[in-house]
Amino acid sequence: MTDQSIQSVKRALNILSILSRHPEGLGVTEIAGKLDVAKSTAFRLLFTLQEEGYVQKDQQTDQYRLGLRLLQLGNEVAKSLDLRRVAHPHLKKLVELTGETTHLAIYDKGEIVYIDKIESNATIRMYSQIGLRAPAHCTGLGKAILSCLPEEEIDRLIATKGLRKYTENTLVTRETLLEALRKAREDGYAFDEEEHELGVRCAAAPIFNHEGKVVAGLSIAGPTTRLSKEKTRAFGPLVKQIALDVSRELGYE
Known about the structure:
About 50% of the residues lie in helices and about 20% in strands. By secondary structure, the chain is of the alpha+beta class. It has two domains: about 5-65, Winged helix-like DNA-binding domain superfamily/Winged helix DNA-binding domain (Arc Repressor Mutant, subunit A, Orthogonal Bundle), CATH 1.10.10.10; about 75-250, Beta-Lactamase, CATH 3.30.450.40. The longest helix is centred in the N-terminal third of the chain and has 31 residues, at about 70-100. About 30% of the residues are buried.
């Protein structure tokens, strides 16, 4: 990203900040003055923000206000925070029961995003971090969530992200991925058998909201030196039960 692009992003964010302090709205001249930029520059930024729904223009007064897109984003953030609040005690319980690291993640455009994590007390720990992204097709969390989504979403993932090979165990064809998702859907949990990272296994299950829609997934993960294939598979029903407990707190029946 160029310096000019970074400057444009900062100015656009400043516009949103300015408008948040003026709910009655401001005209382009006033906004340009507060930004200390030319009126034409302010207009271009406002036009782009308006096109994306982040600001709206009153056609009667020509004044700009914050747009509904921000309300939508705010609702998504609020839902994520509420999900974390509900799930966190269950993640702690799962760590106590298994001795392994637990994760909470949501799905976003072919990837999972970690939104919470509780570390194992064991010497060897997982390298993962809240806010980081990982591919959905080769992670336990990703497959658990994907197993509850329509096949059209799987095809969209393949078309946009592809099925990149990370290890010799990565599922890199549509057929093998769909078969793994079918099995995960039947069982209610999914596994990562060193598919994303060698030396790491994972068991994961989906979380549902009050509408019965998948909204996240939780998992346990650890090094293969502690998590044998058999042990990981034995943890599947437990992870499923904990995920169901979270779902019920979210209103799922």
